[in-house]
């Protein structure tokens, strides 16, 4: 369990996150949604120990995060930040193996190499193994970085917009793999997504942030409504449900301006 209690994050006069209380369970995929600039990245950075807590506490399986315990705290976390640059003179396979090196203090075994190759194969990117990462496309780099965090075998997985550069097939591949491994390995996974339908399809729990505050928390079928989405994004939408009761969101266009109709 990840327990976030009364969490407030401030930088100078700016409040990024205010009075957040959440309990996130092992084996569940939590997806954070919310408008731009509403505190999603700041929350992930704070959970990774990159942004100091102004107020409140965070505990992972009972262990509190403290400034002194940050190195060991981070060892249990797979963190994939937004827009990571990969201007390295390393192959894709070497970048994936780095996920293990951080844990094993620079010693590498055949098992580690085998696990890295397996991760590349599971994500259908084994053909990229020997390619220098600086020659890869944005989407290929994102898949390689995902393979790297998988290799950490984290207790807590923090992914900031992990599918932002991916085509439809790779979005589904990454999310399916994340959901499956989260349940199988008992990870606590937290991913930021902007695509509400992808969030609805894969989240066990949605964390809805608006203005740095928790607006809603729960399974997508309970949380997603046209009223909530309109309140958050100021865009008219319909929320429908498929035959399994899973919600999906359709944006509605305002009527075209009169001058277009007359042209
Ligand atoms: N280091 C910083 N210094 C000053 N302001 C910051 C800093 N980091 C974030 N902010 C501000 O905090 C607010 C929340 O930013 P954050 O990146 O957490 O939002 P977000 O919800 O992840 O946005 P997006 O969807 O655009 O990625 C924004 O107003 C941002 O400008």
From TrEMBL:
| A Pfam match | ABC_tran
The family database entries (InterPro entries) matched by this protein are listed as:
AAA+_ATPase (IPR003593), ABC_transporter-like_ATP-bd (IPR003439), ABC_transporter-like_CS (IPR017871), P-loop_NTPase (IPR027417)
Query: Which segments constitute the ABC transporter domain?
Result: 2-236
- Keyword terms, alphabetized: ATP-binding, Cell membrane, Membrane, Nucleotide-binding, Transport
One GO MF term on file is: ATP hydrolysis activity
Look up the domain of life of the source.
Answer: Bacteria
Q: Which PROSITE patterns match?
A: ABC_TRANSPORTER_1, ABC_TRANSPORTER_2
Query: PANTHER family this protein is in?
Result: ABC TRANSPORTER ATP-BINDING PROTEIN (PTHR42794:SF2), HEMIN IMPORT ATP-BINDING PROTEIN HMUV (PTHR42794)
Family membership, please give it: Belongs to the ABC transporter superfamily.
Q: State the name under which the record lists this protein.
A: Iron ABC transporter ATP-binding protein
Which organism was this protein described from? Rhodoferax fermentans
């Amino acid at each position: 369990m990840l327990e976030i209690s009364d969490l407030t994050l401030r930088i100078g006069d700016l409040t990024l996150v205010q009075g957040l209380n959440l309990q996130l369970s092992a084996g569940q995929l939590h997806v954070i949604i919310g408008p731009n600039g509403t505190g999603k990245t700041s929350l992930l950075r704070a959970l990774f120990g990159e942004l100091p807590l102004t107020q409140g506490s965070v505990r992972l399986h009972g262990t509190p995060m403290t400034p002194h315990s940050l190195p060991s705290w981070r060892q249990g976390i797979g963190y994939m930040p937004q827009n990571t640059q990969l201007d390295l003179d390393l192959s894709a396979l070497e970048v994936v193996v780095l996920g293990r090196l951080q844990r094993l203090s620079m010693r590498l075994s055949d098992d580690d190499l085998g696990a890295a190759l397996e991760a590349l194969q599971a994500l259908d990117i084994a053909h990229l193994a020997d390619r220098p990462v600086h020659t890869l496309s944005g989407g290929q780099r994102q898949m390689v970085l995902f393979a790297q965090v998988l290799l950490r075998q984290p207790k807590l997985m923090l992914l900031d917009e992990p599918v932002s550069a991916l085509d439809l097939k790779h979005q589904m591949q990454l999310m399916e793999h994340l959901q499956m491994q989260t349940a199988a390995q008992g990870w606590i996974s937290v991913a930021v997504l902007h695509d509400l339908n992808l969030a609805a399809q894969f989240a066990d729990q949605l964390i809805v942030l608006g203005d740095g505050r928790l607006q809603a928390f729960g399974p997508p079928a309970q949380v997603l409504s046209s009223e909530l989405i309109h309140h958050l994004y100021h865009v008219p939408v319909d929320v429908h449900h498929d035959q399994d009761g899973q919600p999906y969101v359709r944006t509605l266009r305002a009527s075209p301006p009169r001058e277009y109709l007359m042209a």
